[in-house]
Structure to design on (542 residues):
């Protein structure tokens, strides 16, 4: 749901530029931005170097996972092939798998190891409707017209975490390090549909540190409240009475009228909402045919704001307008929550620790073909042709909440209010793309994504080793969590005990396109890469 991760990066660049230079000189405003954590004991640093070197040798396996999940291209709550594939790899490597977690068929938790600390590694797995696109091709060229595709890059995050976890596991076994690794998938992240249910089911109750990974166009991490919003996703269903639309329209009560009046009401109210807010809707049911007065109609809203009280308030305004529309049309309205996310607040200590590892790894070395592809799609979309990231984004943090002008959401926000969490952004995609679009799928089964994921896996693995071997960091992280972050604001879930995950979402779309998509599943036993299987010359540009 990070629309505009790339766009956001562009906004951040000017702000971050100060931070980058300040950080390099270890100077900058005290208490702002943050300082990368100094190196640990020599043995820790040695093991971190070793784990990064090992991940470099795992490149082929990493690439195969990234390509395989790309080829499944599954939407939220329908990630059946994806989850089957990823859990099989983990199970084969000795992880204990709990499937169907929190009553969600595609959700799972994979654990390995014993005792404390418990380190959770998560990343999203779902994709975007109508984003089908041939990888490596710098213009719109769908594999299947109208089908979903990885138009954000969620095919890459769990492969990154698996690579990191398998490399760390080898070291833990040899060194007999206590600790537990817990891998989990961000099911239906685009619908912000699952993480609050994971929390309710207790996934993070025993977790000490949570490391999330999200695709981006640079290698970076941030702490504090940062940019972006949280949200409530609500479906309003109106019920009226059908009638012959020409013979006896006065006997009908149109549910569609109520939907339209609600939307009109909301759009007038919009002028008087805070600038930070974002809201948008789609009409999911507008009736069957014009000669029947629609007896049922539904509209689905996302209400986004930058903090919990404002999100709650926005939802209440929506409910009021829905009830008013029902009154105006003589219909009834019911509402249900389809998803929700808290605004994110990332942990300072963990971000600073990860930041030191980011500086040690640096950005991947792009070759000419990668840059030609990136510039090709940037040219196609009439964006500045900056190619790929060549300078680290730097550690960001300490943003004044008043400066948060809103933006996207991610239900990792809920996790971040339950346990010290950071999101590693890794450079598997191309800057200056629109987000939630076919263009964001282009890089995601090419060497750009493969290199970005390998770099990210190194950082993730090194940070896990820091957290396993330097208990003072875990303690500091909890100190920030308890005494700074949650001092005045505690987590209150947006869902009640009775709410259930919206498992039916996307079912129809996957039924429609699934059989055709199956023909394009990647077969690594026959082809080295997915590009090779598809017969695509890399890069293909106009
Ligand atoms: Zn995302």
């Amino acid at each position: 749901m990070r629309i505009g991760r790339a766009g956001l990066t562009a906004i951040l660049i000017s702000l971050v530029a100060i931070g980058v230079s300040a950080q390099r000189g270890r100077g900058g405003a005290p208490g702002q931005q943050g300082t990368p954590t100094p190196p640990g004991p020599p043995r820790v640093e040695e093991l971190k170097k070793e784990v990064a070197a090992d991940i470099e040798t795992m490149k082929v396996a990493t690439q195969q996972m990234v390509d395989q999940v790309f080829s499944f291209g599954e939407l939220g709550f329908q990630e059946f092939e994806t989850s089957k594939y990823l859990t099989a790899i983990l199970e084969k490597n000795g992880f204990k798998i709990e499937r169907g977690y929190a009553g969600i068929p595609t959700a799972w938790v994979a654990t390995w190891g014993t005792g404390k600390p418990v380190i959770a590694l998560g990343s999203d797995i779902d994709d975007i409707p109508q984003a089908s696109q041939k990888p490596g091709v710098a213009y719109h060229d769908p594999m299947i017209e109208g089908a979903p595709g990885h138009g954000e890059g969620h095919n890459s995050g769990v492969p990154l975490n698996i690579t990191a976890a398998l490399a760390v596991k080898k070291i833990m076994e040899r060194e007999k390090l206590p600790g537990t690794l817990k891998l989990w998938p961000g099911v239906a992240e685009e619908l912000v549909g699952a993480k609050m249910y994971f929390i309710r089911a207790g996934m993070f109750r025993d977790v000490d540190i949570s490391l999330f990974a999200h695709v981006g166009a640079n290698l970076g991490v941030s702490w504090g409240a940062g940019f972006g919003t949280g949200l409530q996703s609500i479906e309003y269903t109106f019920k009226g009475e059908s009638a012959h639309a020409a013979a006896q329209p006065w006997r009908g009560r149109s549910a569609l009228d109520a939907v339209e009046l609600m939307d009109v009401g909301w759009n007038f109210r919009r002028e008087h909402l805070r600038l930070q807010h974002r809201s948008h809707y789609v009409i999911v049911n507008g009736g069957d045919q014009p000669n029947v007065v629609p007896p049922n109609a539904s509209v689905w809203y996302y209400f986004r704001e930058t903090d919990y009280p404002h999100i709650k308030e926005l939802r209440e305004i929506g409910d009021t307008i829905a009830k008013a529309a029902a009154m105006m049309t003589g219909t009834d309205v019911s509402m249900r929550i389809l998803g929700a996310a808290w605004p994110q607040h990332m942990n300072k200590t963990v971000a600073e620790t990860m930041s030191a590892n980011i500086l040690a790894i640096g950005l991947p070395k792009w070759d000419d073909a990668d840059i030609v592809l990136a510039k090709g799609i940037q040219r196609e979309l009439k964006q500045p042709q900056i190619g790929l990231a060549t300078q680290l984004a730097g550690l960001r943090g300490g943003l004044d909440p008043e400066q948060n002008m809103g933006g996207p959401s991610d239900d990792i926000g809920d996790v971040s209010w339950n346990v010290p969490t950071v999101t590693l952004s890794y450079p598997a995609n191309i800057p200056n793309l629109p987000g939630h679009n076919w263009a964001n799928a282009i890089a995601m089964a090419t060497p750009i994504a493969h290199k970005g994921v390998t770099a990210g896996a190194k950082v993730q693995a090194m940070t896990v080793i820091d957290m396993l071997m330097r208990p003072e960091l875990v303690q500091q992280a909890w100190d920030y969590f308890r005494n700074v972050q949650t001092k005045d604001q505690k987590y209150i879930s947006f869902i009640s005990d009775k709410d259930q995950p919206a498992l039916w979402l996307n079912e129809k779309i996957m039924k429609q396109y699934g059989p055709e998509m199956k023909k394009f599943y990647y077969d690594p036993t026959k082809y080295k890469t997915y590009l090779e299987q598809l017969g695509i010359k890399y890069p293909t540009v106009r």
